[in-house]
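We close this part of the discussion by returning to an individual protein. Part of our work consisted of pairing the sequence of a single chain with a tokenised description of its backbone. The amino acid sequence and the backbone structure tokens for this protein are reproduced below.
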Amino acid sequence: MNTTDTARLSKVVSGIFVITAILCNTGCGTVQTKPMAAEDLDYFQVDCRKRTEQIAMLQSMRSTRDDKMFARVGNMLQPWQVITDPDAYNNRHSVGLGRSNWLLNQKLMELGSC
């Protein structure tokens, strides 16, 4: 190998490490910061006495477009989690489809009628 081939190989290997680091940063080590999982919204009880606190909490749980994209990509890159961690897989599936935002909207409409 000459110097040009070595430099090219070094760039490819470095690129692979950078891409791996980015993917692990967005999916491998993330900790859920939301108060509850998307599937728990089905069982969330609206309390009109705590209306403002519940509205604030539900609004903080709203998923952005990027959250939806990363959830879909995370499920595509880690399909084995259907078996190894079905709760996390299903939660990401719900976020990726926008189901969690739909449930949030339903609960916010219930709180709006208090």
Remarks:
- The first helix runs from residue 3 to 28.
- The chain has two domains: 1-30, 33-112.
- Residues 1-30 form one domain.
- The chain is about 70% helix and 0% strand.
